[in-house]
Amino acid sequence: MSAHATLDDATEADLEGLETLVRLLAGRGVVVLSGAGLSTESGIPDYRGATGSRRRRAPMTYQEFTGGEEARRRYWARSHTGWRTIAGAEPNAGHRVVERLRRSGHVAAVITQNVDGLHRAAGTRAAVELHGGLHRVVCLECGRTSAREELDGRLEELNPGFRAAGAEVRPDGDAELPQELVDAFRVAPCGACGGVLKPDVVFFGESVPKPRVERCFGLVDAGQALVVLGSSLTVMSGLRFVRHAARAGTPVAIVNQGRTRGDDLAAARIDLPLGAVLTEAAHRVG
Ligand SMILES: [Zn+2]
Question: Which pTM was predicted?
């Protein structure tokens, strides 16, 4: 089995971590906090993780996006190119195991930092998308939300033949494009009021809506343990839940390739590929 082949590389610390993870899952009521590392095995690159060589350009901030038409043209041109990769991605073994553990009661709730919708695609409909989802678009003027697929059709009509094959795509659905292509891109306004459309995701420089944060704190408080899957916890929006759990004496386990900002707060730390670890943990939990 390939899972065992990968776990053969496990260090003593990894194996101890795995035992703790299994014990926490067996205790039931685990809250999962997932990040980009969970989706790399679905072909969505993790620009902050171990394979972080792609961090070539800082992501667009909320201030840039709302500040000018040119920034928005650049955003939508790249995002339009990258959307097929996001829309075509499928849940991997990690997403599927999380859903299986949820159905068996070992996992009580899932909070994700990912905007790719892959937990939902794996059947975890109640997953809280902390940073929103790329599958929805919101109008900054009238507040109307609509499906990204609908906008995609309109952008396709406005920009026939635009999509460059093989462009480098990032986890936020962004892609690298030459400037002349960006300059020629035509952006679609809100179909209802003509206002500015934004993907329904939390940009850098933007806050996660308060009610959503409160809901996540509530889930963490109600949980028996917090298990981080595939996040280096670089941004505070995720790290605060780890700190919150640790302060409350709730055990934290972290499965991530590479160091994380929550390592010193974790009772268990596993530095191995997620799919293999989760498959093995679920197998042991039974
Ligand atoms: Zn509108």
Answer: 0.90
Compute the CA torsion angle 64, 69, 74, 77 (nearest 10 deg): 130
Q: Which residues are known catalytic residues? A: 131
Edge-to-edge strands, sheet with 30-34 = 128-129, 107-112, 30-34, 225-229, 252-255, 268-270
Please give the chain's pLDDT, 286 residues, in tens. Answer: 444 546 888 999 999 999 999 999 999 999 999 999 999 999 887 654 433 344 456 788 999 999 999 999 999 998 898 888 889 999 999 999 999 999 999 999 999 999 999 999 999 999 999 999 999 999 999 999 999 999 999 999 999 888 755 566 666 666 677 888 889 999 999 999 999 999 999 998 999 999 999 999 999 999 999 999 999 998 888 999 999 999 999 999 999 999 999 999 999 999 999 999 999 999 999 8
Q: What are phi and psi of 176, to 5 degrees?
A: -85, 130
What the block records as the tokens of 259 is 């160091």
Strand 132-139 and strand 145-147: pairing?
antiparallel
State the distance from the centre of ligand 1 to the C-alpha of 74, rounded, in angstroms. 20
User: Which residue type is seen at 135?
Assistant: H
Ligand 1 centroid distance, CA of 112 (Å):
28
Ligand 1: distance of its center to the CA of 99 in Å? 35
Ligand 1 mean position, distance from CA 65 (Å): 16
Residue 192 near residue 139 (C-beta atoms within 8 A): yes
